[in-house]
């Protein structure tokens, strides 16, 4: 049988999605536990939860490929995503119909994968819990969600839960290097670090940022990555803190406003990056606590829909107020 060729224009996220459990780069303890379940033919109902892009869907699809031959896959696996209607009607009809029918492969059970399960209504989840219990002999369920609180306790108690945490920088870097080599991407060391930093443990996001920067600029360096994603450069954030601490209120406000307009930055983006830098700068503890508290207040007000210009004034004021304690501490 000829091997089906992948489309040339496939996004890297799908092109480099792990095909087997051995290809997964993180959560080795979870994967080894699931491999043991599969090997001993004792797979329970599963509940995967954690942030996006951490390998939840890839893991269960790799398990499904290991359990079933390509010819069996479509008849043995039912995958429903957030884009599908998964109200009580679908649970009572499609999922119940799939789960209740016996498989022609007597030794094998069927697999139902419910992605973004925390978006299901409580009525649908309550209907689902009975199906999970009644047809355990015939079907296994894998529920995937970002937030465990979105799943009712009755379903949680029927599943073996695994938390997929954000990937660490080393794991992401090794996978990105493989993609860079395969795609002949021209990437600098600072560009790689910028991609990993902005992804914040989300492998899917890192691949999307890498591909976007490569297509848009050819060279993947720090400046191009930050420009492509619309994030302020680290040098710009350092300049902002420098202005707020060393310039007058009026000059600092004016310079930050001009930078925002020129670069098309939102105050929220600046706050996020400044918050990270505040923890790296050697401020006295009381000053750092005061600044972080003020930044939190400003972020809360922005989320409530207040004027960005007024909150920029509050942002500059927070650092202006910190000047005297910094000087006093130095003396």
How would you describe what is shown here?
Keywords: ATP-binding, DNA replication, Nucleotide-binding, Nucleus. The termini are far apart. This protein has helices at residues 12-15, 28-39, 56-67, 70-76, 88-100, 122-134, 153-156, 169-183, 189-199, 203-217, 222-229, 234-246, 249-263, 267-280, 285-303, 308-330; strands spanning 46-49, 77-80, 110-114, 139-145, 160-163, 186-187, 219-220. It has a five-stranded parallel β-sheet with strand order 2-3-4-1-5. It has a two-stranded parallel sheet with strand order 6-7. Helix 6 links the parallel strand 3 and strand 4. The protein is α/β, with parallel strands linked by helices and 331 residues long. The protein has three domains: 27-163, P-loop containing nucleotide triphosphate hydrolases (Rossmann fold), CATH 3.40.50; 169-229, Orthogonal Bundle (Helicase, Ruva Protein, domain 3), CATH 1.10.8.60; 234-330, Zinc Finger, Delta Prime, domain 3 (Up-down Bundle). Helix 5 packs parallel to helix 6 and helix 8 (169-183) packs across helix 9.
